């Protein structure tokens, strides 16, 4: 999912239970969408726990992942 698509979906209110995390704004190095904690209720479901990612700096992306991802769940990252 491109950054443009993410921002367009946010502007139209169509993010389907996801929230967007960025390392900094507007000069971002990493963006991650994650399911709202209330929505992602099944720890074993890859499809419920889907993330989308885009990054320009791998270290910033890893920092974003380490604080955002619930490592106790089965999940899938698209990017």
TrEMBL record:
- Enzyme Commission number(s): 2.3.1.-
Which protein family is it in?
Belongs to the glycine N-acyltransferase family.
Question: According to the UniProt record, what class of enzyme is this?
Answer: transferase
Q: Quick check: keyword Transferase in the entry?
A: yes
Instruction: Could you list this entry's UniProt keywords, alphabetically sorted.
Output: Acyltransferase, Transferase
Its GO CC terms?
Answer: mitochondrion
Record bears the keyword Cytoplasm? no
Per UniProt, what is one GO molecular function of this protein? Answer: glycine N-acyltransferase activity
Q: What is this protein called?
A: Glycine N-acyltransferase-like protein
The root-end lineage is: Eukaryota, Metazoa, Chordata, Craniata, Vertebrata
A Pfam family matched in the record: Gly_acyl_tr_N
> Could you tell me the superkingdom of the organism this chain comes from?
Eukaryota
Which residues does the UniProt record annotate as the domain Glycine N-acyltransferase N-terminal? 2-79
Alphabetized InterPro entries for the sequence: Glycine_N-acyltransferase, Glycine_N-acyltransferase_N
């Amino acid at each position: 999912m491109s950054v443009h698509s993410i921002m367009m979906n946010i502007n139209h209110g169509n993010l389907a239970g996801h929230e967007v995390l960025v390392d900094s704004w507007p000069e971002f190095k990493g963006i991650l969408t994650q399911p709202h904690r209330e929505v992602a209720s099944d720890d074993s479901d890859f499809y419920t726990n889907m993330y989308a990612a885009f990054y320009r700096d791998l270290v910033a992306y890893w920092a974003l992942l380490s604080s955002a991802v619930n490592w106790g769940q089965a999940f899938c990252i698209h990017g």
